[in-house]
């Protein structure tokens, strides 16, 4: 039988296939029978087209509704690509990318979401089509800046490129480094990227770092699917929750960073634990262990080994994720998941061992700061929020929207929990959603703890946002639900857009800003001082460890006032030859926005400082373009002795 | 045939060889491709021009997917999708562990890193293939005995 025919035969339910066509007993291909790649592709195409359109099955012309369904996704992609041509990121203002996004972009997003909801309600839902929708949604949300911006987005991404650059040039760690010293104690992610970059023959990781946000978000689909599937077989609930997760996940820790990588591993570890090491395993079919041929004991053993390997990789990669994972595992153990005792003990042991050995030099230096924030619930909870009284108008709106957006997600989750809990009393997910909150007692994590708590709790809370629409297998068929799901998804779009894209004026760097930074790193000799208002520019991407850095806008209020009152005197002192043989002050467009949006300095402060220094005979402009200026202290010429 | 104590008889040796070789011979092509993926990548790193697209794709594709996927063949998984998800997770985890260990030992060799990952991949695929072949053989025998008994 030709492969194509066999592929089509396999698409027909087993009982309907005549024995002679199926090749064996009518139940599918014989063990060991292999279909060619072409046959598989034909089969997949038919499966996709049949579920999308229905025309392949009927053999007739597709109806208008079928055609509309089939064309929704390609149309959204075309609209999105058209939008990209219409956006000029250089025109960004106080609300970031949001006002620049044209109607076609919003229309593309709306099309994807409405089409997704229609696919969710099909009986049965086509999983390949749902995957295509979620991937398109991720592309729209996270690949837009990657395609739009001429340079790598976000200053921290540049720093991480710099740390990768360090490990490309150095075989080992250097614990004596003060700048970005923590990365020398948790080098896992950076050394791995250094290997990838060197093995590929690339000179820097900046090229592929641009694609990190869509990459890491696509990766998350897998563990989210597996976690949700452990608690329900309802594909509508699973995929609604996954799509809503990407609309709720606005914290933006998806750039080239250790936390993006360990977040994926964190979810994979919990997926393994929940699927194989929880009480639900008791009712599941007994999968014999492949190596020993034994039952559950050996299965658990091998799954535990896989879990420990992933946990071991998290420990030397990121400071916070191990603590979040320990919190989750301990909570599950305490609330009756005794089978997780061994992995939990391993995780605690590995984390303590790493922190007390390799990471101890850094931890001991920073112990004072850690102790001072321990137990300070209120201060830790508020430290991440910007001061609304001082922030710019646009940023006040962005902050209010992101707070409302997060609250809305949690309110929906509570509603879903109430509806779902009546039919299924499962506590693992609510516990995992709430456990990160305990970390607010431990530390403020440099003002980011509240956002990290939201991030680590979201994958579990979002399940209940989906459950608000589909609390039971039999529920969620009413017209009310059919309307509310797309309505809620569409309402979450502006919330996500403001929260994620609202600070883009600080995260976007023009070519001119990058050129100024490249100029500084190109001319500055080893041991120079690189001064700036904030670290919000492409800094440290090469040889970062050989320079000293000063960020005057991040200093205390008195110092900032001193800078404003007497810029020439302050910078002459900061950049004096007694301290550094060469000093460079770089002021850029993004830094101006950064100090103004957070209210660190009054409006136009950086322009005034720049003008004062330019007028002073002590300073000279070394480099200038439309978005940046580089100044240095005039070097005194030594007197000639007769 | 009499053999010295402690020495394997030729017949037993042949049987053992057959038990190992037979599943390897029947293994699907993708398993062979997976088994040699690391060595192909190493070859590309040594021979292909720097930053050439095939080299970049091979390096990223191998390091981020193949070692974990090979190890996943050894794990008892309920669904095919799990092999891919945990395959990528284990690949990343193995790469991080290896790189951290060698970085702490101040060893910067990229070739050594690729050789270790390629060895893990090949060994895991071979073990899984031999084991699956043995299991399939046992199942076929059991089915044949069942048919005979009827």
From TrEMBL, chain A:
Keyword annotations: Membrane, Transmembrane, Transmembrane helix
Stated name of the protein: Glycosyltransferase
Compositional bias annotation for Basic and acidic residues: 1-11
Biased composition (Low complexity): 23-33
Signal peptide: none
Keyword Transmembrane tagged: yes
Region of interest called Disordered, as start-end residue ranges on this chain: 1-33
Protein species of origin: Pseudonocardia adelaidensis
Highest taxon, organism lineage: Bacteria
TM region positions: 67-85, 105-121, 128-149, 208-228, 237-256, 262-278, 299-320, 340-363, 449-471, 483-501
UniProtKB/TrEMBL annotation, chain B:
Transmembrane segments: 32-51, 57-77, 84-105, 111-130
Keyword terms of this UniProt record: Membrane, Transmembrane, Transmembrane helix
Name of this chain's protein: DUF1616 domain-containing protein
């Amino acid at each position: 039988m030709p492969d194509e025919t066999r592929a089509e035969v396999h698409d027909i339910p087993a009982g309907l296939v005549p024995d002679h066509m199926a090749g064996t007993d009518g139940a599918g291909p014989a063990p060991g029978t292999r279909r060619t790649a072409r046959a598989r592709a034909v089969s997949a195409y038919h499966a996709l087209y049949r579920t999308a359109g229905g025309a392949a099955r009927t053999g007739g012309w597709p109806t208008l509704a079928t055609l509309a369904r089939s064309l929704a996704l390609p149309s959204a992609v075309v609209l999105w690509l058209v939008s990209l041509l219409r956006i000029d990121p250089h025109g960004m203002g106080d609300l970031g990318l949001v006002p620049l996004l044209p109607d076609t972009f919003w229309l593309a997003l709306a099309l994807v979401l409405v089409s997704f909801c229609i696919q969710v309600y099909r009986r049965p839902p086509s999983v390949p089509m749902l995957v295509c929708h979620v991937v398109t949604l991720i592309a729209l949300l996270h690949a837009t800046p990657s395609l739009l911006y001429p340079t790598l987005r976000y200053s921290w991404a540049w720093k991480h490129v710099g740390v990768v650059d360090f490990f490309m040039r150095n075989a080992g760690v250097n614990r004596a480094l003060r700048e970005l010293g923590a990365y020398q104690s948790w080098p896992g992610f950076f050394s791995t990227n250094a290997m990838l970059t060197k093995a590929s023959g690339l000179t820097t990781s900046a090229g592929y770092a641009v694609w990190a946000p869509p990459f890491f978000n696509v990766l998350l689909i897998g563990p989210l699917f597996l976690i949700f599937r452990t608690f329900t077989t309802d594909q509508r609930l699973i995929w609604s929750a996954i799509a809503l997760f990407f609309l709720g996940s606005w914290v933006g820790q998806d750039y080239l960073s250790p936390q993006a990588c360990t977040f994926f591993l964190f979810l994979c570890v919990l997926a393994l634990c929940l699927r194989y090491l929880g009480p639900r395993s008791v009712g599941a079919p007994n999968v014999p262990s492949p190596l020993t041929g034994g039952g559950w004991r050996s299965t658990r053993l091998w799954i535990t080994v896989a879990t420990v390997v992933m946990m071991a990789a998290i420990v030397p990669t990121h400071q916070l994720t191990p603590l979040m994972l320990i919190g989750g595992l301990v909570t599950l153990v305490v609330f009756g998941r005794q089978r997780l005792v061994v992995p939990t003990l391993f995780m605690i042991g590995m984390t303590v061992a790493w922190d007390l050995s390799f990471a101890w030099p850094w931890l001991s230096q920073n112990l004072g700061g850690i102790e001072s924030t321990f137990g300070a619930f209120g201060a830790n909870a508020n430290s991440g929020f910007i001061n609304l009284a001082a922030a710019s108008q646009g940023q006040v709106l962005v902050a209010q929207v992101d707070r409302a957006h997060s609250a809305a997600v949690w309110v929906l989750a509570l509603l879903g929990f109430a509806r779902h809990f009546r039919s299924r009393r499962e506590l693992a997910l609510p516990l995992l959603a709430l456990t990160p909150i305990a970390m607010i007692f431990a530390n403020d994590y440099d003002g980011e703890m509240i956002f990290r708590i939201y991030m680590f709790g979201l994958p579990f809370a979002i399940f209940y946002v989906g459950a608000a629409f589909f609390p039971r297998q039999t529920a969620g068929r009413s017209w009310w639900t059919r309307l509310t799901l797309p309505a809620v998804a569409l309402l979450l779009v502006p919330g996500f857009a403001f929260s994620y894209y609202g600070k883009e004026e600080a995260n976007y760097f023009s070519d001119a800003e990058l050129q100024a930074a490249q100029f500084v790193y190109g001319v500055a000799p080893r041991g120079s001082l690189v001064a700036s208002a904030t670290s919000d520019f492409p800094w440290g991407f090469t040889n970062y460890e050989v320079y000293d850095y000063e960020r005057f806008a991040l200093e205390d209020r008195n110092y900032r006032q001193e800078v404003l009152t007497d810029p020439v005197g302050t910078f002459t002192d900061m950049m004096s030859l007694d301290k550094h043989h060469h000093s460079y002050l770089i002021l850029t467009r993004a830094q101006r926005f950064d100090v103004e949006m957070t209210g660190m300095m009054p409006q136009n402060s950086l322009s005034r400082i720049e003008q004062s220094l330019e007028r002073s005979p002590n300073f000279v402009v070394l480099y200038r373009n439309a978005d940046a200026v580089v100044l240095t202290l005039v070097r005194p010429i030594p007197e000639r002795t007769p | 045939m009499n053999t010295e104590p402690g020495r394997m008889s030729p017949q037993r040796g042949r049987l053992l060889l057959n038990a190992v070789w037979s599943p390897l011979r029947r293994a699907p092509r993708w398993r062979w491709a997976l088994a040699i993926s690391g060595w192909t990548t190493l070859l590309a790193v040594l021979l292909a021009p720097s930053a050439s697209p095939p080299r970049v794709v091979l390096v990223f594709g191998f390091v981020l997917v193949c070692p974990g996927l090979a190890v996943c063949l050894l794990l008892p998984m309920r669904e095919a999708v799990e092999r891919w998800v945990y395959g990528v997770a284990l690949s990343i985890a193995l790469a991080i562990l290896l790189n951290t260990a060698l970085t702490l030992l101040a060893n910067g060799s990229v070739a050594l890193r690729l050789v270790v990952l390629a060895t893990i991949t090949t060994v895991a695929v071979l073990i899984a293939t031999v084991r699956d072949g043995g299991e399939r053989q046992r199942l076929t025998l059991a089915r044949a005995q069942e048919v005979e008994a009827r």
